Amino acid sequence: MWIKQPTTYPDTISVYHKIKHVKIPEGKPITEFDMEVVVLSDRHQRIIARALETNVLFDYQKNAKSPMPEFMQEALKKAKYAQGDEYLRVMARRAEIDEQVKEVETALEKPEQGAKSEQPEKAEQ
Predict the structure, then answer these.
(1) 87 belongs to a structural domain
(2) To bridge 41 with a disulfide, which of 20, 21, 48, 93 should be the other Cys (CB 3.0-4.6 Å)?
(3) Each residue of 74-112: pLDDT tens digit?
(4) How many of the other CB atoms lie within 10 Å of CB of 121?
Protein backbone atom coordinates (compact mmCIF):
# COMPACT_ATOMS: atom_id res chain seq x y z
CA MET A 1 0.00 0.00 0.00
CA TRP A 2 1.22 3.48 -0.86
CA ILE A 3 0.08 5.99 1.72
CA LYS A 4 -0.03 9.47 0.22
CA GLN A 5 -1.36 11.29 3.26
CA PRO A 6 -2.14 10.06 6.77
CA THR A 7 -5.53 10.67 8.29
CA THR A 8 -6.96 10.34 11.77
CA TYR A 9 -10.34 10.14 13.47
CA PRO A 10 -12.74 11.82 12.89
CA ASP A 11 -12.63 11.23 9.15
CA THR A 12 -14.75 9.20 6.80
CA ILE A 13 -12.96 7.24 4.13
CA SER A 14 -14.26 5.54 1.00
CA VAL A 15 -12.47 2.50 -0.42
CA TYR A 16 -12.90 1.73 -4.12
CA HIS A 17 -11.78 -1.46 -5.87
CA LYS A 18 -11.21 -1.92 -9.59
CA ILE A 19 -10.47 -5.24 -11.30
CA LYS A 20 -7.05 -4.72 -12.80
CA HIS A 21 -6.06 -8.12 -14.21
CA VAL A 22 -7.41 -11.66 -14.22
CA LYS A 23 -4.64 -14.24 -14.31
CA ILE A 24 -5.62 -16.98 -16.76
CA PRO A 25 -2.93 -19.67 -16.71
CA GLU A 26 -2.43 -21.77 -19.87
CA GLY A 27 -4.62 -24.87 -19.65
CA LYS A 28 -5.40 -24.34 -15.95
CA PRO A 29 -8.41 -22.87 -14.12
CA ILE A 30 -8.45 -19.29 -12.86
CA THR A 31 -7.26 -19.17 -9.25
CA GLU A 32 -6.41 -15.48 -8.74
CA PHE A 33 -6.98 -11.93 -9.92
CA ASP A 34 -5.56 -8.47 -9.19
CA MET A 35 -7.47 -5.43 -7.99
CA GLU A 36 -6.43 -1.79 -7.77
CA VAL A 37 -7.54 -0.02 -4.58
CA VAL A 38 -8.02 3.70 -3.97
CA VAL A 39 -8.80 5.20 -0.55
CA LEU A 40 -10.43 8.65 -0.49
CA SER A 41 -10.69 10.94 2.55
CA ASP A 42 -13.78 13.09 3.07
CA ARG A 43 -11.88 15.51 5.29
CA HIS A 44 -8.89 15.95 2.95
CA GLN A 45 -10.99 15.67 -0.26
CA ARG A 46 -8.28 13.64 -1.97
CA ILE A 47 -6.75 10.21 -2.45
CA ILE A 48 -4.88 9.29 0.71
CA ALA A 49 -3.76 5.76 -0.23
CA ARG A 50 -3.45 3.35 -3.15
CA ALA A 51 -2.84 -0.37 -3.21
CA LEU A 52 -2.61 -3.29 -5.60
CA GLU A 53 -3.96 -6.53 -4.18
CA THR A 54 -3.81 -10.06 -5.49
CA ASN A 55 -6.84 -12.13 -4.52
CA VAL A 56 -6.24 -15.88 -4.44
CA LEU A 57 -8.94 -18.49 -4.05
CA PHE A 58 -7.67 -20.97 -1.48
CA ASP A 59 -8.94 -24.31 -0.16
CA TYR A 60 -7.76 -24.55 3.45
CA GLN A 61 -8.75 -28.21 3.72
CA LYS A 62 -6.50 -29.14 0.77
CA ASN A 63 -3.96 -26.41 1.63
CA ALA A 64 -3.84 -25.39 -2.04
CA LYS A 65 -5.15 -22.82 -4.50
CA SER A 66 -8.73 -23.48 -5.53
CA PRO A 67 -10.17 -23.09 -9.05
CA MET A 68 -12.67 -20.29 -9.44
CA PRO A 69 -16.24 -21.57 -9.84
CA GLU A 70 -17.91 -20.77 -13.16
CA PHE A 71 -20.45 -18.36 -11.60
CA MET A 72 -17.59 -16.32 -10.11
CA GLN A 73 -15.77 -16.22 -13.45
CA GLU A 74 -18.92 -14.90 -15.14
CA ALA A 75 -19.47 -12.29 -12.42
CA LEU A 76 -15.83 -11.18 -12.71
CA LYS A 77 -16.12 -10.85 -16.50
CA LYS A 78 -19.34 -8.82 -16.19
CA ALA A 79 -17.77 -6.49 -13.63
CA LYS A 80 -14.66 -6.03 -15.79
CA TYR A 81 -16.76 -5.19 -18.88
CA ALA A 82 -18.94 -2.80 -16.84
CA GLN A 83 -15.80 -1.00 -15.68
CA GLY A 84 -14.68 -0.60 -19.29
CA ASP A 85 -18.08 0.73 -20.36
CA GLU A 86 -18.14 3.21 -17.46
CA TYR A 87 -14.60 4.36 -18.30
CA LEU A 88 -15.65 5.10 -21.89
CA ARG A 89 -18.74 6.97 -20.68
CA VAL A 90 -16.71 9.09 -18.26
CA MET A 91 -14.04 9.89 -20.87
CA ALA A 92 -16.73 10.98 -23.37
CA ARG A 93 -18.31 13.25 -20.72
CA ARG A 94 -14.88 14.63 -19.87
CA ALA A 95 -14.30 15.50 -23.54
CA GLU A 96 -17.67 17.32 -23.62
CA ILE A 97 -16.76 19.34 -20.53
CA ASP A 98 -13.31 20.17 -21.96
CA GLU A 99 -14.97 21.46 -25.13
CA GLN A 100 -17.41 23.60 -23.13
CA VAL A 101 -14.55 25.07 -21.10
CA LYS A 102 -12.66 25.93 -24.31
CA GLU A 103 -15.74 27.68 -25.69
CA VAL A 104 -16.09 29.77 -22.53
CA GLU A 105 -12.37 30.64 -22.51
CA THR A 106 -12.51 31.64 -26.18
CA ALA A 107 -15.55 33.84 -25.55
CA LEU A 108 -13.79 35.55 -22.64
CA GLU A 109 -10.63 36.19 -24.68
CA LYS A 110 -12.45 37.97 -27.55
CA PRO A 111 -12.99 41.69 -26.91
CA GLU A 112 -16.57 42.80 -27.42
CA GLN A 113 -17.20 44.37 -30.81
CA GLY A 114 -17.99 48.10 -30.65
CA ALA A 115 -17.41 48.38 -26.92
CA LYS A 116 -16.10 51.74 -25.72
CA SER A 117 -12.83 51.96 -23.90
CA GLU A 118 -13.27 51.61 -20.17
CA GLN A 119 -10.61 54.24 -19.43
CA PRO A 120 -12.11 57.62 -18.52
CA GLU A 121 -11.21 60.57 -20.72
CA LYS A 122 -8.85 63.10 -19.17
CA ALA A 123 -10.23 66.57 -18.71
CA GLU A 124 -8.08 69.34 -20.15
CA GLN A 125 -6.96 72.06 -17.77
Answers:
(1) yes
(2) 48
(3) 888 888 888 888 888 888 999 999 999 999 998 888 766
(4) 6
